[in-house]
Write a structure and sequence with these properties.
alpha/beta; Rossmann fold; 279 residues; 8 helices; 2 domains
Length: 279
């Protein structure tokens, strides 16, 4: 089932929705994923974008008056926006656009996982995607290698593709072991010096920037990264660390055997909780 159809089914009980955000992610969501007949209007702090956006754009005062059924947040700052919505009206329902990708998702299908990896990374046609974001080749060979390994009939393809995968890892300076378990929506923001331990566990929609490590320690502990976590550049998540859902690891942080809950920002050396969002 396509992402667009899954989202359409997930929104079937809503007559109208509101999109929060009018940047690139919002335009992509409206163009490719969201049912256009259900979109009422768009919210954005810069509400003067009407002249090039396909829907009328309002500031936050609009939702205080209209009280929409559901707000779909299409912005990387979605956690902060969630908090704003709760302050405006705690009864309004809201979702991050990528949460809709997981409706009726088969997590055991590496092909389905790959489709979400590509959709979450793609912002141009496939040829330009390879040129601008060559790290997607690591995702592609990772998912296909794991897919081919599951069946005897496709095992020869695995033995061919696995070395190709590690070649792309070498070229992009990304160490992504095939034994690593990663949920759909793995977003490698930039190529360059990214290391994953094969014993680490990654949830859905984990985003990682350059010069980062998710690895073990001498004690043998391995990190668990939950859904919708972002690890910013220069950070190292090591040992028996647990990063909760919708949390962020600030740039240049050292997370060592640290337990972090949901909707938090952690940063520093050693890392500590800098903010807990009221969601």
């Amino acid at each position: 089932m396509s992402i667009k159809n899954k989202i359409k089914i997930g929104l079937i009980n809503y007559k109208k929705i509101v999109v929060w955000g009018s940047g690139g992610l919002a335009r992509t969501a409206i163009k490719y994923w969201l049912p256009k007949d259900k979109i009422d209007y768009v919210i954005d702090s810069n509400f003067n974008k009407n002249n090039y956006f396909p829907y009328e754009v309002f500031n936050t005062e609009k939702i205080e008056k209209s009280k929409p059924e559901l707000i779909i947040v299409c912005s990387s700052a979605y956690v902060e926006i969630f908090e704003k919505i709760k302050k405006i009206n705690p009864n309004i329902k809201f979702k991050y656009i990528y949460e809709l990708f997981l409706i009726n998702h088969d997590f055991n299908s590496e092909i389905s996982n790959l489709m979400i990896d590509i959709a979450a990374t793609k912002n141009s046609n496939f040829f330009k995607l390879i040129l601008k974001k060559p790290q997607i080749l690591v995702n592609i060979t990772y998912r296909l290698s794991k897919y081919f390994k599951k069946k005897k009939i496709t095992l020869p393809l695995y033995y061919f593709l696995a070395p190709v995968h590690y070649l792309f890892c070498l070229l992009t300076s990304i160490q992504l072991p095939l034994r690593l378990e990663a949920g759909p929506g793995l977003i490698i923001a930039h190529p360059g010096t990214i290391i994953f331990s094969e014993k680490a566990k990654l949830g859905s929609f984990v985003t990682i920037y350059h010069c980062c490590t998710v690895g073990t320690t001498l004690s043998g502990g391995s990190p668990v990264i939950k859904d919708f976590v972002t690890i910013y550049s220069g950070s190292h998540v090591l040992g028996s660390s647990l990063i909760g859902k919708h949390s962020k690891v600030g740039a240049m942080s050292l997370v060592l055997d640290f337990q972090c809950g949901d909707f938090m920002t952690i940063a520093g050396i050693p890392a500590s909780i800098k903010k807990k969002y009221n969601i």
